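Example 9 (inverse folding). The structure is encoded as follows.
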């Protein structure tokens, strides 16, 4: 069971790591029209533009999760709320100067992040699996260190004990022990 949990965490983690490289996981950012920062339309106007599109995913302002400005691209990213646990949220990109819709896509990374944290199965499952995974990884790490370093420590201790015993044996014999050594 633990192995399946770790495989699920590994596979979903890979998808999350590459979210900026894959269009499916995160829509590519488009650039808006040229203009100064003073010409950028306010976020309230962006919300009005989204609502005027009459999208089934955004009938009211409550369904708008966030509006983020990307000044270098002169573009607003508008992220809508997730409609269900198994459905990725929608992302719209609006030109920050003209208010035109630049891109409309699905944020696939959210579904992969929810699978990664097991949030799609509910809050209790997420907390139990993430806590269990953390404890299991900590246990695996500590036991790995023990299995690697204990034999090294044991051999070093054994060598020190052998050296100490050989020195103690030589000192008990006294000067006669030296007379047996070839010159």
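The amino acid assigned to each position is listed next.
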């Amino acid at each position: 069971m633990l192995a399946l949990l770790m495989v699920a965490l590994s596979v979903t983690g890979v998808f999350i790591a590459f979210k900026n490289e894959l269009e499916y996981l995160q829509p590519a950012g488009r650039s808006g029209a040229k203009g100064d920062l003073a010409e950028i339309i306010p976020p309230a106007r962006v919300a009005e533009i989204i609502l005027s599109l009459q999208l089934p995913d955004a009938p009211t302002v409550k369904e708008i999760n966030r509006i983020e400005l990307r000044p270098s691209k002169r573009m607003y990213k508008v992220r809508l709320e997730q409609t269900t646990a198994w459905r990725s949220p929608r992302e719209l990109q609006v030109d920050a100067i003209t208010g035109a819709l630049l891109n409309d896509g699905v944020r696939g990374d959210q579904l992969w992040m929810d699978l990664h944290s097991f949030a799609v199965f509910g809050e209790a499952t997420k907390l139990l699996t993430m806590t269990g995974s953390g404890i299991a990884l900590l246990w695996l790490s500590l036991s790995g260190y023990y299995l690697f370093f204990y034999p090294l420590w044991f051999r070093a201790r054994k060598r020190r004990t052998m050296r100490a015993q050989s020195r103690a044996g030589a000192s008990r014999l006294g000067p006669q022990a030296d007379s047996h050594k070839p010159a």
